[in-house]
Amino acid sequence: MTHSYWDIVRRQTFTLFNAVNLVLALLIAWTGAWQNMFFVGTVLTNWLIGMIQEIRARRTLNQLALLHQDTYHLADGRTVTRDALEPGMVVVLEQGDQVPCDGTVTSGTGEVDESQQTGESEEVQRTAGDRLLSGMTIISGRLELRADATGDNTRAAKLMHEARSHKKFRSPLRDAIDTIVRFCTIAIIPCGVLLFVRSVYATQVPVKQAINSMAAALIGMIPEGLVVLTSIALAVASVKLAKEQVLVQQLYCSETLARTDVLCLDKTGTLTQGKMTLVKILTQPGWTEQDVKQILAGLYAVLPDSNATAVAIRRGCEGVPARFFTVQDMKPFASATKFSKVVTRQGTWCVGALSNILADAQNQWAADGGSAAASPSQSTPSASSEAASPASADQALRTQEIWASRGYRVLALTLDGTPVALLLLQDPLKPDVRQTVGYFRKQGVDLKVISGDDPATVQAIANEAGITGKAVSMQHVGAQDIPVLMQTHSIFGRVTPDQKKAMVQALQVQGHVVAMTGDGVNDVLALKAADCSIAMGSGSQAARAVSSMILLNNQFDDLPGIVVQGRRVINNIQRTASLFLVKTLFSFGLTLLTLVFFRVYPFEPVQLSVISALATGIPSFVLTLEPNDSRVQGSFLKNVLSRAVPGAFNVLILVTIARLLPGTRAQFSTMATLVAGINALWVLFFVCQPMTRIRAALVAFMAAGFVIAVLFFGKLMFLVPLDLWQLVFVIAAAVAIPFVLRLLSALERRILKTGM
């Protein structure tokens, strides 16, 4: 939803149907048949309700977006929003901040997560003179960044605009309603003109009567309220989702997600919590877990590291008394070395990638001339130690590989190059991921995990979440092989941004409705290609802006709720649309019969307005907003027509029979009104199946309303007394209608099934 309030008012007001209704109202007013202008009240009510609901939804979503607007501190002490940044401003960025612009680092040092741009979860150290792009995240340190490009001029924004251009999200519901509207638009004007000309010139009907007959036909053809009702249902769904911290940016996206049969997921931030946790410590002989925690607590009391790994280690050692060290030298973690180093009187302690630590120790040993070093057990401070025996180092490396293959990030704590312990860290799954994965599997949705990370890590996380299979490394996979892989595998690692897009498109070519989750600039192309795109609230601005919905609290388990809302919209609109189309279809049919058989159109405008209000308008609002999470099946248009055609055809049969009975035009019109009204109520009864208390009450109240309208407002509706045989016909029709409707429905299903 990106419309301003004026856009909403203008779009709800200046429509072809409103213009047609205005012309008809003016013509009827000229004839003096004021009671026939009852339909204007329905039109105005639909217009007012639709506009109010959409404005309320827009206001709610605007407030929600405002609450999540990013703000930044400038070097001069001011605070600005992302949108207010201008070139030349110097922004202060600290741990956790997302880079809001393209710019150059003027001072400071920090670790930067560039995966939003590259797709690789690697932390890169940046310092003065380096360039940062919008969407990157500061992992540790403090930087001052001079803005070079802001707003729409950033690289991410340009990519976003390219992705959003000409993007129209897939929506069978919207397409079906557009088809109905186009059909009515094309047919309504020529039908009205032909009907008026025939009435005046062929059958010599007075002009005023011809105008009322034409107005009745056109009012019946217009499915007034259907488009409005759909907008209301989608707007209400958007507001409900907003209360659950889901920001809907495209009205029809909840419907698309409800129809999705393939859901493509990123690993980090979608399946996992996006924060590292120290889950296990594997100690070497001679060391205890308590020893290791005390050492780590002491080391990280002096190390300035503030990246996700350091935070996890500090958190894992909380409450443990730190071991005191006399520090002689220190080197914080750097992405180039992959470890932190603290030189103390007891020796040189390192925490990081074991292979890098061993290589550094070997280089140091070689630089010192290969001198002998004290054994590890002596805990001497010599940095030239040969470290542990090759056997212990090799064993530690093998152990590291085993745990890494299970999805853990494995770090080593060493003393003078000797392994002391292996630290197992993991980005844990979000609490309800397994249940959410199970939900989608039960719904027949195929899940694909697509990540830029190491395939072994991606596989371990996916398997733990309940998505089975082996991971495929996409590092050397050509575009021609992607379609086959998408059919045979569900887990992919080392995926590039272009490959992500190609994978989504390959699934679509195979006939799937594809939803895609993402949070980085590297996901934008795939998000654009997907039928439904879902961004995490913590993701890049480009990913959030190009997506059809945003999970503001970053919770994967919000998706089933979105599916439920989408199903409610589709199923309920599908149910109520058939009520609208019964009147539309029989009005077209009666118009054709009037052109070749009847002398005048059977109905007055007020008669159809009463039937429409009681059997369509009021029930549709009730039915559209009730809970309905049944699985969506079949084509929307086919399902709607299968319910509407029997009801419309039944009216044509009954009105034709009524025309064959002797009587005046007023009596013919009265019989037509009664049988059409009764038929509409029976259609409502069948549409409400399975019956609930609310639905039963709805049908009962609408039937009572129709009886009251006929008995007490018959004169206003141009109803006249019927003779005995006409009354018998109406009673017989009322009894026969449900059986005829069932017969016609069965016949229609048989025809569709056999393809006749």
Question: Outline of this structure?
Answer:
The chain has 756 residues and is of the alpha/beta class. It contains 26 helices and 21 strands. The two termini are 43 Å apart.
The portion of residues forming beta strands comes to 15-25%
* Class per helix and strand makeup: alpha/beta
> If you compute it from the alpha carbons, what radius of gyration comes out, rounded to the nearest whole angstrom?
35 Å
From the N-terminal CA to the C-terminal CA, the straight-line distance is: 43 Å
Query: What's the overall average pLDDT, rounded?
Result: 83
Question: Largest sheet, if any?
Answer: 8 strands, mixed
Number of strands: 21
The number of helices is: 26
Can you describe this structure?
Helix content is 54%, strand content 15%. It has 756 residues and is α/β, with parallel strands linked by helices. Helix 3 packs parallel to helix 8. The protein starts with a helix and ends with a helix. Mean pLDDT is 83; it is low at 371-389.
Describe the secondary-structure layout.
Elements: H1 5-13, H2 16-31, H3 38-67, E1 71-74, E2 79-81, E3 90-94, E4 102-113, H4 115-118, E5 123-127, E6 131-132, E7 137-149, H5 155-164, H6 172-202, H7 207-221, H8 226-243, E8 246-248, H9 253-259, E9 262-265, H10 267-271, E10 277-283, H11 289-302, H12 308-316, E11 327-331, E12 339-344, E13 347-352, H13 354-367, H14 390-404, E14 409-415, E15 418-426, H15 433-442, E16 446-450, H16 455-465, E17 471-473, H17 482-488, E18 491-493, H18 497-509, E19 514-518, H19 524-529, E20 532-536, H20 541-546, E21 549-551, H21 559-596, H22 605-624, H23 636-660, H24 665-687, H25 693-712, H26 724-754
Parallel strand pairs: 9-16, 9-19, 16-18, 17-18, 19-20, 20-21
Antiparallel strand pairs: 1-2, 1-3, 3-7, 4-5, 4-6, 4-7, 8-21, 10-15, 11-12, 12-13, 13-14, 14-15
Helix pairs in contact: 1-3, 2-7, 3-8, 6-7, 6-21, 7-21, 7-22, 8-21, 9-21, 11-12, 17-18, 21-22, 21-23, 21-24, 22-24, 22-25, 23-24, 23-26, 24-25, 24-26
